[in-house]
Amino acid sequence: MAKKLRWGVLGCARIAVNKFIPAILNSQRGELVAVASRGEEKARETAGRLGIPKAYGSYEALLEDPDIDAVYIPLPNHLHREWTIRAARAGKHVLCEKPLALTAAEAEEMVRVCADAGVHLAEAFMYRHHPRIARIRQILASGEIGELRAIRGVFTFNRPEDKGNVRFVADYGGGSIYDVGCYPISASRWITGREPVAVTAHAFFSPEHDNVDMAASGLVEYEGGVALTFLCGMWAEPQQTLEIIGSRGMIQVPVAFVSGPDDAGFRVVTDGRERFEPAEGVDIYAAEADDFARVVFGETPPLFPPEDAVKNMRVLEAALRSAKERKRIEL
Fold first, then answer.
1. Which long-range contacts (CB under 8 A, 24 or more apart) does 158-161 make?
2. What φ, ψ does residue 313 adopt, rounded to 5°?
3. Which of 259, 134, 233 shows the shortest CA–CA distance to 176?
4. Does this model's pTM top 0.90?
5. Could you list the active site residues?
6. Hey, which residues does 8 pair with through a beta bridge?
7. 3-state helix, strand, coil in the chain (%, to 5)
8. pLDDT per residue over 93-152, tens digit each?
9. Superfamily of domain 127-293+301-330
10. pLDDT recorded at residue 310
């Protein structure tokens, strides 16, 4: 039987309870050992409901557990740095929700501390672990759609009435650019295989929501005339699409970032002829956890090194600055 990574979860956030914890329970290489909350009652309730063996009333107590190899951090963005560093110094591998930090400087520090502690750090972009990503890479490398000309990415959802949401707190790193704009921006970087040279963004900052950017659109420039145009939002009609446009064709992914069992396929257009590429419906959170375990056990290199999160953070930081200052930011 393959060795399993023993997980602890810091916090009872919705994404942890609804997505990551069930994924660990259904994964091939993971075992869920404990969950922690700031209050023992909530931790015990969550553990009892989901069948988790241990519950802790503090994050510190979970990190002291010698039976835990790795932690998943779904905490609000402004807590990512602190608890990643604490986990690393406790000898735990870290899978931290996106965006990894509030700034590129914070992300650099997190990467450095984890490297010094000898633990693996990964940013939780679960969509990158879907098998279809390898197929899209293969199509791009084959030259089937010709030379890359442009990328379009959209990730929006509509939940403005949820006034207590941590995404709507400016000091916590709230806003749509950090929460969902990070997806098309990260996608454009692996599609091009390069880093952007400039970013321009325009945003709707809502006084009802602590003046965070509730919607934003932007242009991320790459050398050679290629650019990503993106739209992200938390107060907009829900979409999550990705289009990769080439000189001879395009790849259209209608459900690009949070796909389920029946909507993972995509379309390829070449010289005016269209075909549908089926894609296996997988639990992308379980795939993420299993890939993380294989890296920890030395079976495979990471799909993206920890430094990738620092580079993505530079772009996000520049996009938010551009929207606030209403100017183009060179990187």
1. 158/233, 158/234, 158/235, 158/236, 158/237, 158/238, 159/234, 159/235, 160/206, 160/208, 160/209, 160/214, 160/234, 160/235
2. -65, -35
3. 233
4. yes
5. 98
6. 34, 71
7. 40, 30, 30
8. 999 999 999 999 999 999 999 999 999 999 999 999 999 999 999 999 999 999 999 999
9. Dihydrodipicolinate Reductase; domain 2 (3.30.360.10)
10. 98
